[in-house]
TrEMBL record:
Pfam families assigned to the protein according to its UniProt record, in alphabetical order: ADH_N, ADH_zinc_N
Protein name, per record: NADPH2:quinone reductase
Molecular function terms from GO: oxidoreductase activity; zinc ion binding
PROSITE patterns: QOR_ZETA_CRYSTAL
Residue span(s) of domain Enoyl reductase (ER): 11-325
Coiled coil residues, start to end: none
Species of the source: Actinopolyspora mzabensis
Classification via Gene3D superfamilies: Medium-chain alcohol dehydrogenases, catalytic domain, NAD(P)-binding Rossmann-like Domain
SUPFAM superfamilies, per the entry: GroES-like (SSF50129), NAD(P)-binding Rossmann-fold domains (SSF51735)
InterPro entries: ADH-like_C, ADH-like_N, ER, GroES-like_sf, NAD(P)-bd_dom_sf, Quin_OxRdtase/zeta-crystal_CS, Zn-ADH-like_protein
Length: 328
């Protein structure tokens, strides 16, 4: 089979190599799938650089989420059958950037029938992160104001749709007119182009000076620091990630004075600490997809040979929606 392999760490376009590789064999509690689609995620780029919290030994194949058809069950796997269409996490080092991949059964779920392969493949990480962030950690309530940074990206676009589905007023922050149009298509009530507008000023104007009740921040750095200037009294700033590459140092005295919460989210830990909650979230997201309330935005479908450059584009912040490898 063909697969993208990382033999040495570096920039994705430099280290992702298309190779012929033997078909992987499922271990206990694993399934082998024929990959139907695999989105490019920021963690895939970080793995190539050796900067992600999960650091597989080289050589490895990235692809942290995917949609595929089960072709073989490992020992101890119950509840699945060959031919079943599933989504979930790629079991790196044999991840989804290949024609076939392994998945751990505990992190594998039925694919929603309402979604295409590319859409279904994009439902797992971004939407689960949004679900746990907005509902379990951020306690977003109907009628509140939600500010989403990087609103046209993979994680941000999911938060916009989930915020609207929860009955919030959603303000999306993006970089550039193309990304602004995407955020509007996703349903954001107000869209701010940070390159030409001050998001702090616009948020205050939009909310009558109150500020945003929940701020969804996958960027970090200066974005976090400026967000503290427009968070509402008893608001919640959700720390989702640091796509800017800069980890901010919170001013805890400021959080005390304004009575807001700084709330961390490492969604991956729930797979270990509360897998039942992950499955419950999947069921809820699948119902929402079947009802047409959410639908991952797939901006590009690409082949294996285009994945290295696409992963670099995601790393550099040059993409909108989801860029998805489609194996068909």
């Amino acid at each position: 089979m063909q697969a993208l392999r990382v033999s040495e760490l570096g920039e994705p376009r430099d280290v992702l190599e298309l190779v012929e590789s033997p078909l992987p064999q499922p271990g206990p509690n694993q399934v082998l799938v024929r990959v139907a689609a695999a989105p490019v995620n920021f963690p895939d780029a970080l793995m190539c650089r050796g900067q992600y919290q999960v650091k597989p030994e080289t050589p490895f194949t990235p692809g942290v989420e995917l949609c595929g058809e089960i072709v073989e069950l490992g020992s101890g796997v119950g509840g699945f059958s060959t031919g079943e269409r599933v989504i979930g996490a790629g079991a790196v080092p044999t991840g989804g950037f290949a024609e076939y991949a392994l998945m751990d059964a505990a992190r594998t779920f039925p694919a929603p029938s309402a979604l295409s392969d590319a859409e279904a493949a994009s439902l797992f990480i971004g939407y689960q992160t949004g679900w746990f962030g907005l509902h379990r950690r951020g306690a977003l309530r109907e009628g509140e104001t939600l500010l989403v940074h990087a609103a046209s990206g993979g994680v941000g676009s999911a938060a916009v749709q989930l915020g609207k589905a929860a009955g919030a007023t959603v303000i999306g922050v993006v970089g550039g007119p193309e990304k602004a149009e995407v955020a509007r298509e996703l349903g954001a009530d107000v869209v701010i182009d940070r390159r030409s507008e001050d998001f702090v000023r616009v948020v205050k104007e939009t909310t009558g000076g109150r500020g945003a009740d929940v701020i969804y921040d996958p960027v970090g750095g200066e974005t976090y620091e400026r967000s503290t200037k427009c968070v509402a009294f008893e608001g919640r700033i959700l720390i989702i990630g640091f796509a800017s590459g800069k980890i901010p140092t919170p001013g805890l005295n400021h959080a005390l004075i304004k009575n807001y919460s700084i709330v961390g989210l490492h969604w991956g830990l729930y797979n270990e600490r509360d897998p039942a909650a992950v499955r419950e979230a999947h069921d809820g997201l699948s119902r929402m997809a079947d009802e047409g309330r959410i639908s991952p935005l797939v901006s590009r479908r690409i082949g294996l040979s285009e994945l290295a450059e696409a992963t670099q584009s995601v790393a550099d912040g040059h993409t909108v929606g989801r860029v998805v490898y489609a194996n068909s």
